[in-house]
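Hi again,

Forgot to attach this to my earlier email, sorry! This is the prediction with NAP bound. I've pasted everything inline since the attachment limit keeps bouncing my files.
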Amino acid sequence: MSRQPKHLAVAGATGAVGVEILKCLEQRDFPVSELTLLASARSAGKTVSFRGKEVVIKELTPDSFAGVDIALFSAGGGISKAFAPHAVAAGAVVVDNSSAFRMDESVPLVVPEINPEDAQTHPGIIANPNCTTIVTLMALNPLHRAFGGVRSVIASSYQAVSGSGAQGIVELEGQVNAIAKGEPLPERKVYSRQIAFNVIPQVDVFLENGYTKEEMKMHHEGRKILHAPDLKASVTCVRVPVYRSHSVAVTAVFNEKPTVEAARAAIAAAPGVHVIDDPAADIPLYPTPLDSTDGDDCLVGRLREDLVLENALTFWVVGDQVRKGAALNAVQIAELL
Ligand SMILES: NC(=O)c1ccc[n+]([C@@H]2O[C@H](COP(=O)([O-])OP(=O)(O)OC[C@H]3O[C@@H](n4cnc5c(N)ncnc54)[C@H](OP(=O)(O)O)[C@@H]3O)[C@@H](O)[C@H]2O)c1
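Structure tokens for the complex follow:
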């Protein structure tokens, strides 16, 4: 990476992902010459600490990007669509965490451990993939390469409430506290059902085919990232009362017959992903969402040959979706630039 310091802007700097982006920039010693922090008018004037200095948050406007080299967007798709073109026009490269541009043919969709070369050609915008897709592909990509290509995926996700932004955590916490005190539940603002002590088999809106928009992301984005145009994915996304880190139970069918031993070796050799898998241990070993929380790496366990489908493996993968699923991945893309 060029260590030439950059003028960075973070749009959505007060959100779950924005706060984590600042943490990643600090921890990775990203060379920053100037930092512009942007959010809504509600946050303008507040300060945030970065490398020991207080930085004042400004309201995001079309004129926010003068002199900016790289603009990291994490304020939702509508904001990205409205303001990313202004950032590009001002000469910045946008790394966008929303779904606004992911399926735009000219916009690369990048996981730096998987397809870093795709970031080399871009129209001023590079998209960060969906968080559940990133966590799944971090485990799937080494297997895709080891076993002649992945043909299909059947997966169920267990998605943390922080995936809904800072307000998802507030809603879970409020409900847990009310239940513990025997009080009525506070008014729901994020989820259609109670999330405390419950699971909700809906993440995002339903589409005509009966899948949700979130579920179809793995199908469409997986094809684009892996350069596997025939890949099919059937996914069920479920919101669970976990603060942070998404988990995914995956069955993947490959062109060549996989073995568990070769799968473990392939994952062990890949960057950013580790195997934690010993069912024979006194306390059987496998990763849980708490194990990946605040960590950079995705963790894989429960690897086994699938009993139903031929040439298939079934496994479990967890990853911190605010971090590797969003903030860290975006900062890694900025490092590629
Ligand atoms: N959370 C995750 O795990 C995750 C993972 C992958 C991708 N993403 C994507 O990342 C983006 C941000 O998600 P998040 O979870 O960080 O959401 P969040 O916690 O709700 O934060 C939203 C951010 O956007 C800002 N914002 C809202 N309206 C705005 C406006 N009109 N003008 C300027 N800024 C505005 C908010 O500023 P104020 O504080 O001033 O309102 C806040 O900084 C979304 O596109 C999401 O899909 C999230």
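The longest strand covers residues 150-159. The chain has two domains: 6-128+326-336, 133-321.

That should be everything now.

G.
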